[in-house]
Structure formats: structure tokens, C-alpha cells
Amino acid sequence: MTHRRTRFAHLGRPEPTLATPVNHPVERASTLLFDKSEDLYRSDLRGYGRHGSQVHDALKRLFVDLEGGATAQLYPSGVMACTQPVLSFVRPGDHVLLTDSAYGPTRFFCQTFLKQMGVETELYDPRIGAGIEALIRDNTAVVLLESPGSLTFEIQDIPAISAAARKRAAVTIVDNTWSAGLTCNPLALGADITTHSATKYFGGHGDLLYGGAICASEDHGSTLALTAKQLGVASSPDDAYQVLRGFRSVSARFAQQERTAEALARWLADRDEVRQVLHPALPSHPDHALWRRDFSGGACLFGAVLAPGPVVQVDRFIDALRLFGVGFSYGGFESLAIHCDPQLKRKFGEPFEGPLVRFACGLEHPDDLIADLEQAFAQYS
Fold first, then answer.
1. Sign of torsion over alpha carbons 365, 248, 81, 282
2. 2: pLDDT strictly greater than 90
3. Residue 275 annotated among the catalytic residues of the structure
4. In Å, what is the CA distance from 188 to each residue of 11, 64, 85?
5. Is 219 assigned a catalytic role?
6. Range of the domain at 365
7. Domain boundary residue among 245, 274, 309?
8. Are 74 and 186 part of one and the same domain?
């Protein structure tokens, strides 16, 4: 099976016999029973419901195939998929390098929880590239990347940063939620671990929370699995089933959302109300060349810097949108829009000329979304 969408339709399914379901059935269980006492402590069998089920195994196989990794670990939320891998590799006295463009909850975790552990977090310029070598110390345990950056959409030089970290035995972890692993594969670019908020594209319907982390090596996978076991991490078989089902159609949904986002980005770039469009597929993006080198396409999410105006004017514009919901997340069937300035915290980079709005494109027709934006701009004055 050469093509990914074909593999996603066939991997992780039970072998057909007589009237076999197309997917593994959901097994809801905490206690697992054994007919012989001597089998209770066997290491080759699951001993408890927290250890997963066939649905979880099937989902792990799809995540491994998605990123071309060796192992996958599942988590009950995207935030946990971002934070627990970090926790697996740090000890008191360690140093963590975190991209200044990181997802807000990841930043909050590093600057609060890790600080309480005695782990120092240092922010770095997402466009630092190979220059990150100067920031890596003897006690640097983890380098965290996110490409493009959350809210501000900087593209990071994953190969250069990963190579510098590997020289000093620091683990590189890339939040790859934006591309869904469909248009960028950080493990192939040299990273050690890639993480996903499966809540987004793989859930696809805004009704579940889930996460996954994929490791390039078995050793790192074993470390993640041990941390999860020690902390009692487990995810619902019902949620795992829903994410598994989302994998079956994600390629088609993602492709449509990707096309819609680029169409909207190009339309917005010609509007007088817009100062800058933050979409790496546009030649005007400062990291467009790097994006073309490392990505095979875009995604559903991008930003637009509007002409300077008061907060009330931005809120009036967003509230006038009829097809864009006002809410966090992305990758679902419904388009979303949020005003980013209240949560925008950056140490590096020049301030934007106006307010930043983030758009997440759903499955609506792009012509309808453009018409909705056009009527809403009448309120931006």
C-alpha cells in the first residue's frame, strides 16, 4: 500500500473471517479475568484495563505509520501528549529549550510545573536554526519545537535544530499538530519525538479530547511508556475508537481544509483591512522557502494581522461572522476564528502592526466563507 490514505483505510483492522466488523470492537473493562492464577502476572498479557485494548493497539499502529516512527504512546488529551514526553526526560537541575512560538499550555507547563521540579526553561527565537547550538548546555535535556508556531506561524529549521541537539544528547520533541503529520514528518527531518493533539484533525468533530506521541526509537518509546505507567495514564476505549475512525477519513477532510485555508489566505492578502497574512504557503511569508523545503503542503490554520484598531472593533468583526464559530481548537468540521492578542506572549520578533486573528477552516465551501468574511469586514471600521 503505497499511498497513505489507502493505508489509513486498511491498517489496524481485524482479519476478516465470518461477519467480521471493519474495526475492532470497543472493550469497556477495568478488571480483566484469567482462568488460571498462574497467568495473572504474565508480562506478555494485559493485566488490567488501564493497559489498553485492541482498539488502542490499532490506533498506535496508525500513529506509527503516520509519522514513520518505531512506537507510539496514547494520551487522554492533546496537552498531555505535549507535556508528558517532556516530563519523561527531565530531572531536577536540567535545562529545557522551548521555542518562543510554542502552544500556550505547553509554555505554561514548562514555566510553572517544571520550574517547581527545579527544571529551568529558556525560551529561544523560533527562527534561530543552527544557532541554537550556542544555547545548548551540558544539562540541556530537551529541546521543544513547534512548526509552524502556535498563533504566529514561524517555520522552524527542524533538521538544523535536531542535528545540534543530537550532538549534545538532548531529546528533540516537535509539536506536529498543525500538519497532522500529513504535510510534514519531523522524524524524517531528524527529530526524536513528534506529538499530536488528536483532538483536532483526527477527532474531527469537536467532541472528544485525545493525544499521541510517536518516537523514532524504541528506547525513547520505552521511556514514554514507563512514565505513562508510573503516572497511571490511560485513555478511554470509546475515545480511542473515535480517533481510530477519524483516521479513516482524515486525508480527505484535511485536503479540503488545506485548500480552503489557502484560498482564504490569498483572498485576505488583497484586502485593505489586512496588513499581513501569516500562512507559510504564501510567498510573502518570511519562512516560505523553509516551508517549501520541509513541508509537502499546508493545513487548515493560519493568521491575519488586521489594520490597527481598538479591541472592540476586532470583537465586532469576529462577532459579525456567521459561519465561523468563536472558540479554541481547529481541525473540525466547523470553521473558527479567535482574537489572539489577549493570549499573545512573545519574547522574540517584532510586534505586529495590528491585531492578530486566527482562522481555522472547516468543511464549508470556501466561497461561502469568503462571503462571510466580506460581510463581517463591514463592521471593521
1. negative
2. no
3. no
4. 21, 13, 19
5. no
6. 251-377
7. 245
8. yes
Does the annotation mark 48 as catalytic? no
Identify the CATH number of the domain in which residue 329 sits. 3.90.1150.10
Q: Is the pLDDT of residue 69 over 90?
A: yes
From the number of C-beta atoms within 10 Å of its C-beta (0-12, 13-18, 19+), residue 316 rates as middle
CB 124 within 8 Å of CB 107: no
- Among 175, 192, 287, 372, the active-site one is 175
Q: Are residues 272 and 236 both part of a single domain?
A: no
* Other beta carbons less than 10 A from residue 66's beta carbon: 26
Q: Quote the CA–CA distance of 159 and 163 in Å, as a whole number.
A: 6
CB 5 within 8 A of CB 251: yes
Last residue of a domain, one of 183, 217, 245: 245
What is the pLDDT averaged over residues 318-339? 97
Q: How many CA atoms lie within 13 A of 167 on its CB side?
A: 12
Which of 75, 103, 210, 330 is catalytic? The answer is 103
Which of the residues 60, 127, 200, 253 is marked catalytic? 200
Instruction: Indicate the average pLDDT of the chain.
Output: 96
At 251, the amino acid letter reads S
* pTM, rounded to two decimals: 0.96
Which of 187, 131, 190 shows the shortest CA–CA distance to 159?
190
Distance of alpha carbon 126 from alpha carbon 220, whole angstroms: 24
| Per-residue H/E/C for 315-371 | HHHHHHCCCCECCCCCCCCCCEEEECHHHCCCCCCCCCCCCEEEEECCCCCHHHHHH
For residue 71, the number of C-alpha atoms closer than 13 Å in the C-beta half-sphere is: 14
From 28, 42, 50, 229, the catalytic residue: 50
| Residue 1 predicted with pLDDT over 80 | no
Has 50 been annotated as catalytic? yes
